[in-house]
Design a protein that fits this description.
five-stranded mixed sheet; globular; single chain
Length: 231
């Protein structure tokens, strides 16, 4: 028996990340059961999902107790699959009402989720540990309302206005929710998955029916070549 046969195979140790593990432990210690789920990718990033009622408290802890003083962004995610599929493959003859009323399975990203809409924010400790964390929370389907972060992070003002405008999520306590991009009379929420791009619903994607010739080719040249080959 060769020495190679007698060697034991050693598996590589699992990567560790004491820095982010410590951040997670700190949030869990302060928030308890309000930390619904988490996901830690060693030496990469940390996601912590908290309950909706703890959303504002989480911001206060992050900034004032844990040193995450720099606000990066806040936005939302609609986990509903698009009822229209890929617009390039849209079925023009399928009634719009039938597309909108299709059942779907909720599939969310890391740290999970229980509702169609989630808030997602990122804050960073730029002074000491130089580490960031993604904080997320399920938006209640029945109220579509979450506490504002503007009293903790002033920079959340415009981010929450955009999220309200594009997803229809109201931020309780926000000083002035008003439109950033859309006219005041605009109806609907353009970043929701069930908001139809009507020109693409009533007419196929141009690339399906309008095929432009390659440079140097005359229009219809490919069809003529194929016809000659078949003959």
């Amino acid at each position: 028996m060769s020495s190679a046969d007698t060697e034991t195979t050693e598996t590589a140790p699992e990567p560790t990340d004491d820095l982010r593990a410590g951040v997670l432990a700190a949030f869990e210690s302060e928030l308890g059961d309000a930390v619904v789920a988490s996901h830690l990718k060693p030496n990469d990033d940390l996601w912590i999902r908290v309950s909706a009622v703890a959303w504002h408290t989480t911001a206060e802890l992050a900034k004032h107790k844990f040193g995450f003083s720099w606000f990066d962004y806040l936005s939302a995610i609609d986990w509903m699959p698009s009822p229209f599929g890929r617009y390039e493959d849209a079925e023009v003859d399928t009634p719009l009402a039938e597309k909108l009323n299709q059942p779907y399975d909720l599939e969310t990203g890391v740290a999970g989720g229980d509702t169609r809409f989630q808030l997602l924010a990122r804050v960073v400790d730029v002074r000491n540990r130089h580490v960031g964390v993604h904080l997320k929370s399920d938006v209640p389907d029945d109220t579509m309302t979450m506490p504002t972060w503007t009293k903790v992070y002033a920079g959340a003002d415009w981010h929450e206005r955009e999220t309200w405008e594009m997803y229809g999520i109201t931020f309780e306590g926000h000083p002035e929710l008003r439109h950033l991009y859309l006219p005041t009379e605009f109806e609907g929420f353009p970043l929701r998955k069930d908001y139809p791009l009507l020109p693409r619903v009533v007419k196929p994607w141009p690339g399906i029916v309008d095929v432009e010739p390659m440079p140097g080719e005359e229009p219809g040249e490919d069809e003529e070549t194929e016809a000659e080959g078949e003959a």
